[in-house]
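>> received
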Amino acid sequence: MSYWYIAHDDELMIDLDDYMRPSKSGCPWGEAFFRRRLRDAIRDEKLHVIYVNLIQSATKGHFHAIVTLRANLPIMQRLIWQLHLGSDLYRGRADLMRAARNIYAPSLLIVPSPIPSFRTWDFKCGCTEKHVTEKIFDQPEGERCKVWNKLRGMSPWELFGRSPRKIEKSVSLPVGIVPLELIMKEEEE
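>> returned
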């Protein structure tokens, strides 16, 4: 099963990749970055937090954090706070683009089991594998996860353009005006 939680107006849903990666000081990145930024926002009364729920991701060393706030915030402020607190950059950019395009449920969390001591999920599906958009989009439309279709249902390139998965050689860009030919150049490794 997969449980889908759509971020409510009083919630921040943060994807903390490589949470356990050592920082410059040697302590885990999650401690040095996420906790410190959240602590500073609470101390300076920029965020009024009720509680934080930290959840182990299906990926080793990765976590999700749900910050429940005392009051609702507008969607753009919530998405900016998520990025500030260290949420994955691709997820953050995609959430912002979905919000800018008024796509329903721009920020959500999908987990393999209900989150203890948290509210009830918004949707549930029978999928047992991670919802990888590119893989799902390759399936015939009638075989795709119905919840994914409702909440995401777009090809992976609709937000920002196609991004082929190939290893490229480095193309050095000059300082100053960069010729578009260099931007468009593709040299495979």
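>> Residues 132 and 156 are 9 Å apart (CA to CA).
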